[in-house]
Design brief:
Shape: elongated
Distance between the termini: 60 Å
Strand content: 15-25%
CATH architecture of the largest domain: Orthogonal Bundle
Largest sheet: 6 strands, mixed
Radius of gyration: 26 Å
CATH topology of the largest domain: Hypothetical protein af1432
Number of strands: 16
CATH class of the largest domain: Mainly Alpha
């Protein structure tokens, strides 16, 4: 039996349900050891101002308490908890909920973008796909969003659409009515879903179509006598017509429909039928895997030399032809300064500093005068595979503040920028501002408790008068910070 340290936990905080997966790898094959699900319907608790209803929040926190014993048996770096559509929408107003969730679980909750969600779904489904690589279209209908991915050996197109079984239930079936007088809410939901799919008709063309997750599986079971099997176009046509005739959701009498799925089934079916019609799908396979399995594969990659974030940064560097010699100079110096300042600084923080340095001049490809602002904007809003929203925001903050006055951050859950990393990046950028090689011999950076102290030998400063002036300017920039910088020439 493998040791617990070789196991991984993925926890998906979805808009409809929370899913936990405990898995391990045997001969490079993932084995699912334990799964658990809580039907939370988080999206039901999101009001017009994107605040979470206290009742729904408490329901969600209770579910997390149930999952916690599984997480506490593993190292933190073997666990990943991700929040998807509803938590993306509520992130700015959900600090209290997220902090309580982190306190219960003992690990941070990462809010991920819709595109990152789609990538992880694709990775999970492909882990169960048989045969040689071929063109596939993956479809996942969640509680708040629907992800569609087209790809072969790797994803080629990723889409995240604002339609899900819970959000559409609230929008079209709020009173439980499916058909009333001249208004057919089911058909309205179908039309809305088809409108979202405009321009995406090609995404399933000539591809093997695979569906995954709760709504797809629920429809499959209803159509296939309780078994999860392929969904055929004419069968879902027939089911959609039957459901559209029912007056109220409570009157739905469908064999093999899970009671917990009952309240959101009509909305999920309307979306799935719209996808079949708009994308001209004749048959859909149903995968047993989804985002949880993708998260586990991603975690294993991070710990065994296949961190997707690193390859994403490398791709950006190559695309924008960033000066690799300058990256090397600034990186070497910044990491040496961080080693002086915090010898035991966590690996994840050192990685973040390296990535920020690799990307710190990305804006120069388009502008010189405002390259820091542009670079930060590009990083914050780009689809960066492997990164959570908070990680991208932190990288953007470092790039934006690599020189000049320090812009005060508006901290929130998932975004607590480190002044240590910022200081090391700024000092290294000053030392190599003229793109010249310089040694750190005679330079020492330390934390005095109430201030940072940068001690430099007078001989070093005399040899670089322009750098000396920039360092004195830097001292001024830090005077407004919680921990100022003091320059000491000896």
């Amino acid at each position: 039996m493998q040791s617990p340290s070789e196991r991984y936990v993925a926890l998906d905080l979805g808009s409809n349900s929370f899913h936990l997966l405990l898995a391990e790898f045997r001969d490079q094959r993932m084995v699912r050891l334990h799964t658990d699900r809580a039907m939370v319907r988080l999206a039901e608790g999101l009001d017009a101002h994107r605040h979470l209803n206290p009742v729904v929040s408490e329901r969600a926190l209770t579910a997390l308490t149930r999952f916690q014993p599984v997480l506490q048996k593993l190292p933190v770096d073997h666990i990943r908890v991700v929040g998807t559509n509803t938590l993306r929408a509520a992130a700015a107003n959900a600090d209290g909920f997220l902090e309580e969730a982190e306190s219960i679980l003992g690990v941070p909750v990462e809010i991920i973008s819709g595109i990152e969600e789609a990538r992880l779904i694709y990775s999970g489904v492909m882990a169960a796909a048989d045969g040689p690589p071929r063109l596939r279209c993956i479809i996942d209908i969640g509680g708040g969003s629907t992800e569609l991915v087209r790809g072969s050996e790797s994803p080629q197109q990723l889409q995240s659409l604002e339609m899900g079984c819970v959000s559409y239930s609230r929008r079209f079936f709020a009173d439980g009515l499916i058909s009333e007088n001249t208004v057919n809410h089911f058909k309205r939901a179908q039309r809305a879903a088809r409108a979202e799919l405009q321009g995406l008709q090609h995404i399933a063309a000539e591809a093997e179509v695979i569906g995954c997750s709760g709504s797809v599986k629920a429809v499959s079971r209803v159509l296939n006598g309780g078994e999860v099997a392929d969904i055929v176009h004419e069968d879902i046509d027939r089911l959609a017509k039957e459901v559209a005739k029912v007056e109220h959701i409570a009157e739905l009498e469908l064999p093999d429909l899970d009671e917990e799925r009952h309240p959101v089934f009509a909305a999920g079916l309307a979306i799935l039928h719209a996808i079949f019609c708009e994308l001209d799908i004749q048959r859909m396979e149903v995968s047993p895997y989804a985002i949880r399995e993708g998260i586990v594969h991603d975690l294993a990659g991070r710990l065994h030399g296949g961190d997707r974030r690193a390859s994403t940064v490398d791709a950006v560097v190559q695309h924008w032809q960033i000066d690799q010699n300058q990256v090397r100079r600034v990186n070497d110096t910044a990491l040496k300064l961080l080693q002086q300042l915090r010898p035991e600084y966590p690996l994840e923080g050192r990685q973040r500093l390296r990535w920020a340095i690799q990307l710190h001049e990305v804006g120069l490809a388009l502008t010189h005068s405002s390259f820091r602002k542009l670079g930060a904007y590009m990083i914050k809003h780009a689809d960066m595979a492997g990164f959570s929203n908070g990680e991208q925001e932190h990288l953007a903050y470092l790039v934006r503040n690599q020189r000049g006055p320090i812009k005060a951050p508006k901290e929130h859950y998932g975004f607590h920028p480190s002044p240590d990393l910022l200081l090391c990046l700024r000092l290294a950028s000053i030392i190599h501002r003229d793109r010249t090689e310089r040694t750190l011999r005679g330079i020492n950076l330390a934390d005095q408790g109430d201030a940072y102290r940068l001690q430099i030998e007078r001989e070093w400063l005399d040899s670089s008068p322009a750098i000396e002036e920039l360092l004195y300017q830097e001292e001024q920039h830090w005077q407004s910070q919680t921990r100022p910088l003091r320059l000491l020439a000896v």
